[in-house]
Write a structure and sequence with these properties.
The chain contains four helices and 45 strands. By secondary structure, it is mainly β.
Amino acid sequence: MKKRKLLSLLVAGAMLLSTTTAFAAEPTITAETVDDSKTGSITLVKTAEPTGAWLKANGVEGEGVAEALPIKNIEFKEMKIADLDTYLYNGEIGTYYTNLNADFTTFLTESGYTLTPDKTDDTKSYYKATTLEAAMEYLNQKSQFNVEDFVDHNGTAFDATNENGRTSKSDLDLGLYIIAETDVSKASIANSWLTGDDTYAKIIGLNSPNTDKSQVKEIGEDGNVLSGSVDATSVAIANKTVPYLISVPTTNTTTISSEGVDYAPGTVWMYDIVSYPKNTFKSITKMIVDQDDDKTLRMYEDYEIGDHINQVIFADVTAIRNGKTNKIFEISDNMSESLSFVSVNKVTYGLRTKNPTTTDDFSDYTAFDEADYTVVMDDNANKFTVKFTESGLAKLDALDNNYLIVVYFDTILNSAAKIGTEPQNMNQPELKWQHNFEPEYTITGNKVYVFTYEIDVTKDGLNDLSKATFRVQHVNNEGKADGIDMQFVKEEDGVYHLFDSECNDKADETVVHVNPNKDGKLTIKGVDSEKYVIVEVATEEGHNLLKYGFDIVIAAPVKEDSTLANPVATATHRDGTVTAEASSQDSNGQTVTESTVPLLTKDGVVYLTIHNNEVITIHTGGSGTYWFYITAAALILLALGGCIIYKKRQARA
């Protein structure tokens, strides 16, 4: 068995370039010499790393991996390009690389690079680690894509990374290997990693505020989305890992400890190498701008039919290297039929320093010129796309860091809106990009939901319930009706929705008064978390109008996960004419006077009942008429008698 003494002139661990990372741990400690009888292994672990916690490149595995999100279905190949050998120099044995792969040397020559050996003898040329590193740097700078293609055609594949982001190859001959990431198109995140607490959401591209972590697709071996898996992903790889070198074995590049002993850099040979290839990740996130403070970003919000909804999409754009340029960069939004696109107001870009939670986080970004992009609307798909033009792509090419692009746009909740608390009125962003000499990539982002509710009124106390007529107004911040009758469009008897003035409805179809149907049912669709006053303006003859209007207050609580809970509602009236629908948590159908009544709500529908009282009248006819005349005559005689007595008394005086 021949062993080689480790010399300071070579630290093979330097072959773990900056494109790889690893956490420090306790490796198997070996002697200070290379053992030719051994083989080695390479384990690649693909993760999205926590912000500010980039893993250190020392070739070993350890703590902190659980804090990183594993990426599955990434494909790598390895290609051995040199043997590990020794060279006797001035009485000392040095470790070098020799017997270079013929295809590799040809590739170097065809790429215009002249590789000069550090040592030669009668039979071999010997190369230091730094010499081969310089050759790889040249190749990557000239064309990373060409290096990837070279390894793809000449290397040996790893299995695709599993749900833990891992893939390994064992029984590797000692020597120097190129590692290239060859296919990231099926990259996904196992759904099993996206349950429980938010640990795994704290990742670049996945830690946007209120990110719905269920929106990550899981892809099968055939490349198709698995049955039962959701149809979206929140993260994708923007740039492949730059091809890099790994030496098997390699030495530690940082101080490591084992059994209480610290080993300085370059003193331990490691045959089983763990490498963490880095990537930059692209993500695209969609948020609604809060309608109250006009800056907080939300994934869920409620609106009235006809309301304008200000939204933003922010997408990652990363610096590109090695002569690449942006060929395609498109940001789209896919909307359900209940949302109508109005306009893109502006598109901006700026350095990404945090994950935005309010519009203040990107208020100082630089605006693109209008000539830098076009806006294309696909009416059939209810989708708009911001497409960057040549001038816009040139600006992206010039970026030297990780940036965010922000699209500000306006939509309207139209009359096709779905009522309730189920996630229905949805839109979802999409990012498509392509660098020259690379495939086209498309990723989808989080889904954003808009909710709207309805009020279901049951009218009773009338013979003809359809005779009751109401108007509805908003209540202002001072608690008073704003005096403006809300406009509605009648769908059928007793069913109305708020007027959608800019999209589907016509002005000549609107009404300001609404009536129940013959069964006393009145449905008002398209309300949100607001305060409304409903006033009865007409009723059946022989019945009293409600003396006052009554207030309905609707509020949708925000849950801990920032989604909206089923709204709660109350009604207030001063003469006891409003009752809550029978339920276990309200007044159980009993009339309540001088108080606020809790109303039953279910699936975004608010229920209440309104009573009318009869007018008190004297019924006439028959014997009633006879007694009416007798009473009237008696009263007249009494009045005449009084007058006579009064005049006589005056005469005596």
